[in-house]
Amino acid sequence: MKKTPTGTTVGVDDPYEHAGVCDHVTDDGNCRYAFEHAEHDPEFAEARRADDFACPVAEGDWEWADCPHYRCRQRDRECVRCGLEERRDAHSDDRPLLEEHHLAYADEADVGHEITVYLCRWCHAKVHGSWGRIDDDVGPDAEAIAAAEARRSDERAELGFETAAERREEE
Question: Is the pTM of this model over 0.90?
Fold first, then answer.
């Protein structure tokens, strides 16, 4: 199984099996990286410019692993392993339910790409504990469900409306 730079497992053998479309590809198949960051890799940008900024992967010429600037970060705010959805609390310092999990690291010499997904912190611990895989068919941990429900209750309480008359009756 693939390892982090510190030696813990990332939960997959091949990060590209779990990666999606590059963050730099536009809806019409162009490479945004070559257009917006040409100064970072002038040779790459010039080659893309000569091809009207077409993404070579979208054109079918390359695989994602072939592109020197491939990056894929998951946007869905749910755990890819157990499906737990994020319940954010903007007014609290509580730890988030979901954490970004790297399948590949941008500074790795053999990969050179950033590929991330979201895992709930319970699945994240299991994956880094070296026995869990991100494609395991599991449900949310009981503790994870309890934490999500507690946040849902807080949301409902915050959205509740109490009139001044109701507040006076309570006093």
Answer: no
